[in-house]
Specification:
961 residues, alpha+beta, 32 helices, elongated
């Protein structure tokens, strides 16, 4: 197919043989490229082949008024044809052509109409950085999914469909620039080879043609203003504003079904919702004609298939009408006063469509849908009233937190700009970057949060500060300044854009003074905004760079904040510096100031931890994660006997106390274990908002965040390492030494809870060393027997008792001086019947391997508690008295094989009497007759104390130096 030049254009072109030759040669030079119609990066877009170009040219001729042809020159026609040829040709660019752009193989141009554009490699780098920040809506519009963008491959062969769609969006944005550059350099191709247009008939003519082609992607006024004043009416033989007008209208009204055949739409499965929408728009156009009663109106008959398409088309037609209005206005301004050129114009002034009147459309077309799209709406001022209390529970300290977060972020932004652009020095106090003042006046209170940060512009105030839920930190402008490779360079403390909403917890009116670093001293901004107000007025003021928010509040609120200063001690870093003060103003207007200490100070991101008690955990997606057993005084301290708590801190802001008011679940919290580590303080630096904080910012939206698992493993590993390293060879000379050292190591960071004596119960002792009471370790070590030795106050460390009779033993705390305590002792550790930790951890499991058990019990206790009333008859019937004296029984519960013979029972009884113990229990095992499948354990916890124990002990159950 070739380009069909309409008759009138052809006749005018032939009046100048040089211009005609240039035009036809240029068309022929590009014909092979356009004929191929290989839109590799736009496989789903509407037609942009010669068919489309011919339609644009035909439309252009038809909308030019008859009177205009008296003024139109051969240069006009040539420039129109070349600009039509070029205006969308970037959609045909090949993979080689694209790579030549972004590698800067394709030369830059120097146009007389524009300053030099940035290098293509820089444009691509900026685009990829932006693309990595695309939200889910933008991703779905391009790819129809929300999978994040990644870098494209260096080799064209490795490009995926997804890569091509990403590149297509880049080319779409800059296709007008590519059109302009092609007139200078030709079509970008392989190894610098290009397809070029013909030699220009006069200097700068190709530049002008490219400029006209580029103008269709600019506002008409912006394009016309790029012309020198003396060249606006006529330039290089061309009436440029007129040509620009004809091109944009001709291209716009090529909205008809032939560009997007519905048959092809049915066959192809389109990925991008953008392309789907474009095809559907074109397919919905039945006819475009001049059949309206208004001779200057164009009528479009459309039949969209759904309400969304109906609304989209109405917006499209509105845009076309806006273009028509601007075209008529510009042509009148440029040519209206000059008789010779006043006849230049188009014959379309208005656009009419079958969609103009919804009622008439419904009556005539009878669509199956209701032609109206309903949308969610909120009245901000009213919603503000409703949301404050449910979100924050009327806690004024939350208002302070939100304002402090905004201020800290502003200081970080100023520092980031200073690093990247130039060293910015502002006048500020030396002792703080942010100051929070709680002021008590005679009959009212006041809270002031003042910072020396980056400050706000009018645009930021209007579109973000006063727009609930709209965070400036989510805008493309902010991201371009403060992000690198799609990742934030700042650890933002704010996230949800609701700082203003929370500030109203302090009072009903805010007074704000702010000055952006780009503004002079007398161009600061000042305004008041009230709860429920629908309008805000702003005036200029003299103020320092930064922002000051003052809130008049009740005396009651100030008194509560003064009494509970820890409740608003949110900030946990040293830089930026945050100062807090309580100020009391007396009747004589004298101020009495008390500066408050910052209770929580944690390491800065990526700071050197050497010589500290902090540990770092590398976590994907987070800039830094550190933990420590250091505890801090918090707002919870006054409610508990222990004043120091482990805390969770995110980007320098206190989130919660880990043990109280927290839903964090460390790995050791997800299983039933006797012994666990203490909960650590965790500090997270989250540059991209990955930490799942809830909207109140006092908890996580889900408890098992990946960084918590990483911390859990590191905490567990360091604790077991410390435990192992604390032992020496002398601690294993005797079992007594091993037990003594184990008791001493209770001082390590074990979470023992309310039952401090449960610590020693977590260990198994034997001549092999020390192990944990756990299914995995018991199965690995396969002990012949385990003796359970009770204790009341302190475990008995008696050499003869420990060494004389059994291979492995463990201690348990028993209240032997009460009937209930003695009954629990028998049922929990002999019968394995209750939910006590022994049974919960391995009681049922051990029953699979038990060959039998023996209980040493006083006869008086036996007669008191071993009755059907207390001990189940079914279990009691299994028991045999295999040995007795005047005071003691030895009961045996034989399950399978014969048990070993009794060894010196009198000596055992003697030691039990001597130590005044309630008795002892021995469990015997038969590992030879066990089904191997039973040994394969289903783990309850992803990574537990015992996992770490085995990992650091080379898979062995017993540790020994």
């Amino acid at each position: 197919m070739s380009l069909n030049i309409p008759n009138r254009m052809k006749e005018r072109l032939e009046q100048d043989s040089g211009i005609n030759s240039f035009t036809l040669t240029s068309v022929n030079n590009l014909k092979p490229w356009l004929d191929a119609n290989t839109t590799v990066f736009f496989p789903e877009y509407t037609d942009h082949s010669f068919i489309h170009l011919n339609e644009v040219l035909a439309t252009a001729e038809s909308i030019i008024t008859d009177e205009s042809w008296d003024t139109i020159t051969p240069e006009d026609v040539s420039a129109m044809i070349i600009s039509v040829l070029l205006h969308d040709c970037a959609m045909h660019i090949t993979e080689d052509g694209f790579y030549s752009l972004i590698t800067d193989t394709y030369p830059s141009i120097k146009s007389q109409y524009f300053s030099t554009d940035p290098k293509w490699s820089e444009m691509w780098s900026d685009y990829i950085a932006e693309a990595k920040r695309f939200n889910s809506d933008k991703l779905k519009s391009i790819f129809n999914d929300s999978k994040p963008v990644s870098d494209i491959p260096d080799n064209k062969i490795d490009l995926t469909t997804r890569d091509k769609l990403l590149i297509g969006e880049f080319i779409r944005r800059h296709h007008a620039r590519i059109a302009h550059e092609i007139v200078f350099n030709g079509v970008p191709g392989t190894d610098g080879k290009t397809l070029k247009l013909a030699e220009e008939p006069r200097r700068h003519f190709l530049d002008l043609c490219g400029f006209i082609a580029k103008s269709h992607n600019m506002s008409l006024r912006q394009a016309v203003d790029a012309l020198n004043t003396k060249k606006k009416r006529e330039h290089l033989g061309c009436h440029v504003p007129f040509l620009m007008s004809v091109l944009r209208i001709s291209d716009y009204i090529q909205v008809q079904a032939t560009r997007a055949p519905s048959q092809l739409l049915n066959v192809k499965s389109l990925i991008s919702p953008i392309s789907k929408g474009e095809w559907k728009k074109h397919d919905a156009i039945l006819e475009i004609n001049h059949a309206d009663e208004d001779p200057e109106a164009l009528f479009i008959d459309a039949e969209p298939q759904d309400a969304i398409l109906f609304e989209d088309l109405r917006w499209l037609f509105t845009d076309i009408q806006r273009e028509l209005d601007e075209v008529w206005a510009v042509l009148g301004e440029v040519y209206g006063r000059y008789d010779k050129m006043a006849n230049l114009g188009i014959n379309i002034r208005r656009l009419r469509s079958s969609l103009d009147d919804i009622n008439e459309y419904t009556r005539n077309k009878k669509p199956e849908f209701i032609p109206k799209v309903l949308k969610f709406r909120t009245a901000d001022s009213e919603m503000m009233e409703l949301l404050i209390a449910p979100l924050y529970g009327n806690k004024p300290e939350i208002g302070i937190r939100e304002l402090v977060q905004n201020s800290v972020d502003a200081c970080l932004e100023l520092e980031d700009i200073s690093k990247k652009q130039q060293k910015i020095v502002i006048e500020k106090p030396e002792d703080f970057d942010v100051c929070v003042s709680v002021i008590e006046h005679g009959d009212y209170g006041e809270v002031i949060v003042e910072d020396y940060g980056v400050g706000m512009t009018l645009d930021i105030i209007e579109n973000y500060f006063l727009n609930i839920g709209a965070s400036f930190r989510n805008s493309d402008r902010w991201k371009k300044t403060h992000e690198t490779e799609g990742s934030s360079d700042i650890h933002r403390t704010g996230r949800f854009g609701i700082g203003l909403l929370a500030a109203y917890l302090l009072g009903d009116e805010l007074e704000v003074e702010t000055r952006h670093i780009s503004c002079p001293e007398n161009k600061g901004l000042k305004f008041r905004c009230s709860r429920g107000s629908k309008s805000v007025t702003i005036s200029h003021t003299d103020c320092h760079v930064g922002t000051k928010v003052s809130i008049k509040t009740s005396k009651n609120i100030v008194c509560n904040l003064s009494k509970n200063p820890k409740s608003w001690d949110w900030y946990c870093l040293s830089v930026p510096k945050v100062k807090r003060s309580l100020i009391k103003v007396n009747d004589s207007n004298e101020k009495h100031t008390k500066f408050l200490e910052q209770n929580i100070v944690v390491p800065q991101s990526r700071s050197n931890l050497q010589g500290t008690n902090w540990f770092r955990v590398e976590t994907e997606g987070l800039d830094d994660v550190v933990w420590s057993y250091e505890g801090f005084e918090t707002k919870d301290s006054e409610y508990h006997s222990n004043k120091y708590f482990s805390v969770l801190v995110c980007n320098g802001i206190f989130i919660n106390s880990v043990k109280y008011n927290s839903n964090i679940k460390f790995l050791w919290d997800r299983g039933n274990q006797i012994l666990t580590p203490e909960d650590p303080t965790v500090v997270v630096y989250d540059q991209d908002g990955q930490v799942p904080l809830d909207i109140q910012r006092n908890s996580l939206t889900y408890s098992n965040a990946s960084f918590i698992s990483k911390v859990s493993k590191d905490v567990t590993k360091k604790l077991i390492e410390n435990f192992f390293e604390s032992f020496s060879k002398t601690d294993f000379i005797s079992i007594e030494n091993t037990i003594k050292k184990t008791l001493i190591l209770r001082k390590l960071n074990w979470e023992i809870g309310r039952h401090k004596d449960s610590y020693i119960s977590a260990f198994l002792f034997s001549r092999q060393g020390i192990s944990l009471v756990d299914k995995q370790t018991i199965v690995k070590s396969k002990p012949t027997s385990i003796q359970i030795i009770p204790f009341h106050d302190t475990p008995t460390i008696e050499k003869k008792l420990l060494n004389g009779f059994y291979t492995d033993f463990s201690f348990v705390k028993v209240s032997g001086d009460t009937k209930t305590g003695r009954l629990d002792w028998v049922r929990n550790y002999f019968e394995f019947s209750s939910t006590n930790h022994y049974r919960a951890l391995y009681g049922n499991f051990l029953l699979k391997f038990l060959s039998g058990s023996r209980l040493f019990i006083r006869i008086d206790d036996y007669e008191e508690i071993c009755k059907p009333t207390f001990l189940p008859k079914r279990f009691q019937n299994k028991l045999d008295i295999i040995w007795e004296n005047s005071d003691w029984y030895i009961l045996e519960n034989k399950i399978s094989n014969e048990l070993p013979g009794l060894f010196k029972p009198e000596e055992v009884i003697s030691f039990l009497e001597q130590e005044k113990l309630v008795g002892t229990i021995a469990h015997y095992f038969d590992w030879d007759n066990v089904d191997p499948d039973i040994l394969i354990e289903k783990k309850e916890v992803g990574y537990s104390i015992v996992d770490t124990w085995l990992e650091l002990n080379n898979g062995k159950a017993y540790f020994k130096v």
